[in-house]
UniProtKB/TrEMBL annotation:
Transmembrane segments: none annotated. The keyword Hydrolase applies. Residues 17-236 form the Enoyl reductase (ER) domain. GO terms for molecular function: hydrolase activity; oxidoreductase activity. It is an enzyme of class 3 (hydrolase). Gene3D superfamilies: Medium-chain alcohol dehydrogenases, catalytic domain, NAD(P)-binding Rossmann-like Domain. It comes from Ganoderma boninense. The gene is Q8YJ71. Pfam families: ADH_N (PF08240), ADH_zinc_N (PF00107). Its EC number is 3.6.1.-. Keywords: Hydrolase. This is RNA pyrophosphohydrolase nucleoside polyphosphate hydrolase)). It comes from the Eukaryota. SMART domains: PKS_ER (SM00829).
Length: 237
């Protein structure tokens, strides 16, 4: 099967909201020896993408007419000649930052963050360095896997990635019910922690309860929510 030479992609010619998204067609860059070509099957959007679209993202340099989106899952359709460990047909997802695969974040890492400052994943096909890929777990759909690279890894690093790691019996306060918070809730519950969740929505708090949260606080109806947290934890901050 002949490989595609072009890809349809969404770009942001102006940065004052998602309404500026423009569908364009552009060339697929030639594959380098250490790269793979992915057919994008699913992309997840998050709050960062909204901030980028509004021109409010403060990390790293800006790029004109950027392809937004950092989180996706896809299928490898071509591999460079020096790529090892990957083959056509494998399901994969890229790191949030293509050059940051371990260790502390750096200025260099911010230079290769997908969706800002470099072109992201809201496209049909995407060339990615092989070292920046991880396998999609066999039990996950493309849609499920596409939610992992930024929000889930952020939550994992906060709770289990370094310093004092979360352990069973700990108490975790999750503020809000956005993407990072929901992943943090699930990771904390799976680790055996007691989880307190705050939100302005009772409906969202019910979802948090179904995911394992033990204590629920609506900070609109309980404006002094921190006092409620102290009661729950017997005065421990």
């Amino acid at each position: 099967m002949a490989l595609p030479q072009t890809t349809r992609e969404y770009r942001l010619p102006k940065v004052d909201g998602f309404h500026n998204l423009t569908l364009q067609e552009g060339p697929i860059p030639p594959l380098k020896s250490n790269e793979v070509l992915l057919k994008v099957h699913a992309v997840s959007l998050q709050y960062r993408d909204l901030v980028v679209a509004r021109g409010q993202y403060s990390f790293g340099p800006k790029k004109e007419d950027v392809v937004p989106g950092s989180d996706m899952a896809g299928e490898i359709v071509a591999v460079g000649e020096d790529v090892a460990g990957w083959q056509v047909g494998d399901r994969a997802m890229p790191n949030f930052s293509l050059s940051h695969v371990f260790g502390e974040a750096s200025d260099e890492g911010w230079q290769t963050a997908l969706g800002a400052p470099i072109d992201g994943v809201l496209t049909e096909y995407k060339v990615i360095p092989a070292h920046a890929l991880v396998h999609v777990p066999a039990h996950m759909s493309y849609e499920e896997a596409s939610t992992l690279p930024c929000a889930a890894v952020t939550a994992y690093n906060a709770l289990l990635g370094g310093g004092r790691k979360l352990k069973g019996g700990d108490t975790v306060l999750i503020q809000g019910t956005g993407g990072v918070s929901i992943f943090g809730l699930q990771l904390a519950v799976a680790s055996g922690a007691t989880v307190i969740v705050t939100s302005s929505s009772d409906k969202k708090l019910e979802i948090a309860k179904k995911l394992g949260a033990k204590h629920l606080i609506n900070y609109k109806t309980t404006p002094n929510w921190e006092e409620e947290v102290l009661k729950i934890t017997n005065g421990r901050a």
